[in-house]
Specification:
3-stranded antiparallel sheet, alpha+beta, single chain, 147 residues, 9 strands, 4-stranded antiparallel sheet
């Protein structure tokens, strides 16, 4: 009986010690407990004389050995970066007049990455609702759009 009580007491103590750590992990500003790069990422689309450009600001939360910024498949590598030191990158991106496209911006630091999607040019087309075929009792098929 003592062994059962000792195991139960040990389990309660262990749960009490780990609960604050789990709670802190869930209260991170990202809304989820998944680990990500120790970097704040801001990516904005701006029109320029030559078309569009993506302005990326990356600020590491702690000192990192290498900071990589990837915009539309092109990679820029910054060397050792101190904590809270801003790294800014402006990348021109070709977009046909009247067209639009999505560009993925990814920052890698400390073996982890953080990504953001940026829309350039025209807004994304709205997806049409898919038609649903409804069968009547007499067997005639009717296509109608459900909202």
């Amino acid at each position: 009986m003592r062994a059962v009580a000792l195991v139960f007491t040990s389990a309660l103590a262990l749960a009490a010690l780990t609960a604050p750590a789990l709670a802190e992990r869930h209260r991170s500003g990202h809304g989820h407990p998944k680990p990500s790069a120790p970097v704040s990422l801001t990516a904005l689309a701006q029109p320029s004389d030559a078309g569009w450009q993506v302005v990326v600001d990356a600020i590491p939360h702690r000192a990192v050995d290498v900071l990589e910024v990837e915009v539309d498949g092109r990679i820029a590598r910054f060397g050792a970066t101190a904590a809270q030191a801003r790294r800014q990158l402006v990348v021109p991106v070709a977009v046909a007049p009247g067209a639009g496209r999505d560009v993925v911006v990814t920052v890698r630091a400390g073996g982890r990455s953080r990504s953001q999607l940026v829309r350039l040019g025209a807004p994304a087309p709205v997806a049409k609702p898919t038609p649903v075929t409804v069968r009547r009792v007499n067997g005639v098929g009717v296509a109608e759009v459900r909202r």
